[in-house]
Amino acid sequence: MASIDTKCVQAGYTPGNGEPRQIPIVQSTTFKYATSEDMGKLFDLEASGYFYTRLQNPTNDYVAAKIAALEGGTAAMLTSSGQAANFFALFNICNAGDHIVASSSIYGGTFNLISVTLSKMGIQSTFVSPDATAEELDAAFQPNTRAMFGETIANPALTVLDIEKFADAAHRHGVPLIIDNTFPTPVNCRPIEWGADIVTHSTTKYMDGHGVAVGGAIIDSGRFDWMAHADKYPGLCTPDDSYHGITYAEKFGKEGAFITKCTSQLMRDLGCIQSPQHAFYLNLGLESLHVRMPRHCENGLAVASFLKAHPAVKAVNYPHLPGDKYYDVAMKYMPDGGCGVVSFELKGGRAAAEAFMKELKLAAIETHVADARTCCLNPATSTHRQMTEEQLAAAGVPAGLVRISCGLEGKDDLIADIAQALKAVSL
Ligand SMILES: *Cc1c(COP(=O)(O)O)cnc(C)c1O
Q1: What is the CA(16)–ligand 1 centre distance, in A?
Q2: Is 4 a residue whose pLDDT tops 80?
Q3: Considering the chain, what is the average pLDDT of its residues?
Q4: Is the Cβ atom of 214 under 6 angstroms away from ligand 1?
Q5: Contact criterion met (CB below 8 Å) for 341 and 155
Q6: What is the pLDDT of residues 143-162, one digit of tens each?
Q7: Does position 49 have pLDDT exceeding 90, yes or no?
Q8: Residue nearest to atom 7 of ligand 1 (CA)
Q9: pLDDT band at residue 45, thresholds of 50, 70 and 90?
Q10: SS3 content of the chain, % helix, strand, coil (to 5)
Q11: 203 close to ligand 1 (CB < 6 Angstrom)
């Protein structure tokens, strides 16, 4: 199964003779066994199988296997949300007293997770610019650093991460690079091919793509050698007392240790499982991901080009638009396109942004991106509402900034809608 297209459609599930063609939704919390000895082997991680859906469910495993194939990883798991995926990916290898180096240009929820919630749990962090030099990256590491984190294309700033530069820095300091690859999806970028060790997703976005199911995923490249850094990762490299003294990195190797520990410890203790029904919806989205992404990108580029030439527009951010600050790095990692999200600043500021969005007929005002239907948002009057004008400017979110997530409609219709709405602003 060589191509990404075929993997989107068929990876992860191969029915046997007379079995369902589509993945079955195993709508069962529990599984039956003939003897408690049989079940005991599962609890000891001596045999693989299912006993309780909080830990594993066949529907979820089919879809996780497809996502692992798409990203080129050795193992994967689904979570209840993208937030849960990023929390689990970090908390699986960081304990109180540890430290994370993260790009400052990341999703707001993840920024809060790392800077506020993990800090309350005793895990500290240092944020670095996605544009930092190798020397500046090196300076952010501490002896207790356990992970580096960044987003391929950041939501909402639309900065592009130089994945190789970040991977090299992480590996110089003996820690894995975790990449949130939500925006480009594995159709447009596969961070593992560029040195990332763990990949995460909010599957709520393009992977689902229809605005129906919140979800997340974690994929392990199987490449990071935990045992070579055993002093840093006692959770993977020393016996787990809460699991009969298993040492994950020994028993499951580089390929399986991370996801097995994450499932058998964090999912067991914290929940956050994706429901099998949601996994089924997610799989429907994945079946057409390779067909939808090029159209999102085509529409994004067309809208960005139109906006750039419009007199009411002060600035446009779209990495694949020639002249964008991130154009070269975007073309290196994503030659076929990135995503359908464009942001732009109106000359008229906050008032113009509000007036513009009110006039749009096709694009709906929503706290969402990456949907089949075009949607838009003015961060200053919604997600970043608490901030003053000065704070907004410092955060790179000026009051007149509009984020528009181009859907799958006809691009001429989208541009016509935007053009008529801009007229209201320009009057
Ligand atoms: C939306 C998003 C998240 C959070 O995902 P949820 O599914 O909403 O929990 C994390 N990272 C990125 C890049 C996102 O866009």
Answers
A1: 35
A2: yes
A3: 95
A4: yes
A5: yes
A6: 999 999 999 999 988 999 99
A7: no
A8: 82
A9: confident
A10: 45, 15, 40
A11: no
The answer to whether the CB of 83 is under 6 A from ligand 1 is: yes
Class of domain 290-426: alpha beta
- How sure is the predictor about 188, in pLDDT bands with cuts at 50, 70 and 90? very high
Rounded to the nearest angstrom, the distance between the alpha carbon of 137 and the centre of ligand 1 is 25
Q: Within a 10 A sphere around the Cβ of 424, how many other Cβ atoms?
A: 14
Q: Please indicate whether residue 200, judged by its CB atom, sits closer than 6 Å to ligand 1.
A: no
Cβ atoms < 10 Å from Cβ of 108: 14
Query: For 217-268, what is each residue's pLDDT tens digit?
Result: 999 999 999 999 999 999 999 999 888 899 999 999 999 999 999 999 999 9
Residues 6+ apart with CB under 8 A from 268: 54, 55
The pTM assigned to this predicted structure is 0.96
Specify the pairing of strand 145-151 against strand 177-180. parallel
Domains of the chain, residue spans: 9-284, 290-426
How many residues belong to the chain?
A: 427
Secondary structure E strands in 197-244: 198-202, 216-220
Q: Answer yes or no: are the C-beta atoms of 141 and 327 closer than 8 Å.
A: no
Mutational test site, ligand 1, from 111, 117, 181, 204, max ligand atoms within 8 Å of CB: 204
Q: How far is the CA of 289 from the centre of ligand 1 (A)?
A: 17
CATH 1.10.1740.10 fits 9-284, yes or no: no
Q: Is 59 in the pocket of ligand 1 (CB under 6 A)?
A: no
Cα 285 from Cα 340, distance rounded (Å): 16
Predicted confidence at residue 424, as pLDDT, reads 85
- Taking a C-beta distance cutoff of 8 angstroms, is the pair 346, 356 a contact? yes
The share of the chain scoring above pLDDT 90, in percent, equals: 87
- Reading the block at residue 3, the tokens are 């191509």
Q: Is 185 in the pocket of ligand 1 (CB under 6 A)?
A: no
For residue 331, the model assigns a pLDDT of 98
Over residues 400-422, the mean pLDDT reads 97
CA atoms of 383 and 422, how far apart (whole Å): 23
Give the closest residue to 164 by CA, choosing from 154, 174, 150: 150
299 in contact with ligand 1, CB cutoff 6 A = no
Note the pLDDT tens digit of each residue in 346-387: 999 999 999 999 999 999 999 999 999 999 999 888 878 877
Is residue 60 within 6 Å of ligand 1 at its C-beta?
no
Three-class DSSP category at 345: strand
**pLDDT reported for residue 427:** 62
CB distance 208 to ligand 1 below 6 Å: no
